[in-house]
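Look over this record before class:
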Amino acid sequence: MDIITAIILGIVEGITEFIPVSSTGHMILTSKLMGHNDQSDVMKTFEIVIQLGAILAIAIVYWKRLLNLLGFDRKKTTSIQGMQQSSKKLDLIHVILGIAPALIVAFFARDFIKSLFSANTVVWSLVVGGLFMIFAEWFNKTKVTITSHELDDITYKQAFLIGIYQIISVLWPGFSRSGSTISGGMLSGVSYKASADFSFLIAIPIMCAAAGYELLDSYRYFNSETIGVFIVGFLVSFVVAYFVVLAFMKLIQRISLTHFAIYRFILAAVFWIFILN
């Protein structure tokens, strides 16, 4: 791997990690088109590093919310009885409920999940995931009463249901973690924007846990030959992910899940042509 490769893959990771288009599919396709079929431990470690760059970007975007969840900088309001209560309803229990199901499944089924990974699996996940997103958007608009319009409106039950839907992305490589959680939120009566906010927020602990666990086996690949490339990939992924998330949240009312679904279908076709044929 060279610096140019690190920059390109860092850009791809930053763009695709948090929007519902499957970062896994994009990384495989990009590597193939660049002539890189390297599945070495060094390459796998690099992918973990650039994921951490994207995670840091999300943490900075949501730094105020993270402080609130940890009990810092929490705004107070006064109730009728004169007792101070938090104006923020979302708490750590919501986050735990949102990540626990996927973490438990990932921990106990790690080897099984890795055995499922293949180009065929990713192609089908792009298509099925796109159909799932279209259905979720239709259901949210026509069949369900939206009870949670903002992030702080999300209930414990809804947080847990989103966590259950997130299991799909754990068991099906390429399905898209954000696609499953945003769609799951919309199927559970959460608005599109609030579902996206919650999806991004719970990405921080679950991706940190997953990346940290993988690094326990990969830390030895940090050396004088790789550290420069790792740093470049990390920084590029961080910067790109930061601006992509900000742009997505500003344009969320204009870009529906159906738009992302159509893009996934196109990507699946490209994937089929260049990877499977």
In short: Strands lie at 76-78, 84-86. The chain has one domain: 3-72+89-276.
